[in-house]
């Protein structure tokens, strides 16, 4: 499932694929996310982002996040 996650500032939300759901030792609901990046998210391309396709690129980067940061499901 692909989801939109809450951004820390006024930027567009982040997009990730849920790899797995789990609970912490404190029984907090979490999920492992695999991240998609926009051209402007990639530092090397930031100043040239307007030249890059507006699509997102799935990365190999994964990390754990609290379930409450999910904003919505993304429908492609």
TrEMBL record:
<feature type="domain" description="BAH">
    <location>
        <begin position="1"/>
        <end position="76"/>
    </location>
</feature>
<dbReference type="Pfam" id="PF01426">
    <property type="entry name" value="BAH"/>
</dbReference>
<dbReference type="InterPro" id="IPR050390">
    <property type="entry name" value="C5-Methyltransferase"/>
</dbReference>
<dbReference type="InterPro" id="IPR043151">
    <property type="entry name" value="BAH_sf"/>
</dbReference>
<dbReference type="InterPro" id="IPR001025">
    <property type="entry name" value="BAH_dom"/>
</dbReference>
<protein>
    <recommendedName>
        <fullName>BAH domain-containing protein</fullName>
    </recommendedName>
</protein>
